[in-house]
Design a protein that fits this description.
about 160 residues; mainly alpha; 6 helices; elongated
């Protein structure tokens, strides 16, 4: 075999071996769900603790305490979103999941907005932000309904 043929064959094999991990790295929807559910479960459990009794505190006029809870929920959701962004998305669902994660970011921002309004004592404005938060959470949940997530859908009515 000539030197040029050997060289061409060696280059072909190197390119082929380099491409194999790219093909093997493609994530399926089921693999994505399995990867993100533990992250979402941890966030759900954190929110169960963080937002416990927030509705009653607002009704009782303990707005500073409720504001702190909303700020803590926003921080937890931002951390969760950062972890979710690191998980490889299935290429077929990449656009949908990117939109979902954008909506999750919006939810975190709305949690902060509610916290700011409560800290200022603006309960009317806070209620408007809560309505927007509920709407954003429902919209995000509807985007990923077909994934059959158990923990990655945010049950906002459970807390507020």
């Amino acid at each position: 075999m000539s030197f040029m043929r050997k060289l061409s064959l060696a280059i072909f094999l190197v390119v082929l071996l380099g491409a194999l991990p790219a093909f093997a790295a493609e994530t399926t929807r089921d693999e994505y769900v399995k990867a993100v559910e533990p992250i979402c479960k941890k966030n759900r459990e954190a929110n169960d603790k963080i937002l416990q009794g927030v509705r009653q505190k607002v009704k009782a006029g303990k707005l500073d305490a409720a504001a702190k809870q909303f700020f803590a929920a926003a921080r937890a959701l931002k951390r969760t979103r950062a972890q979710l962004l690191k998980v490889p998305k299935p290429s077929a669902d990449a656009a949908l999941l990117t939109k979902w994660l954008k909506d999750v970011k919006k939810e975190a921002e709305l949690f902060e907005a509610v916290g700011r309004k409560l800290a200022k004592g603006e309960t009317g404005s806070a209620n408007k932000m809560v309505v927007r938060l509920v709407s954003a959470a429902r919209q995000a949940n509807n985007l990923v309904r077909e994934f059959n997530f158990r923990y990655c859908e945010f049950p906002i009515s459970r807390y507020i």
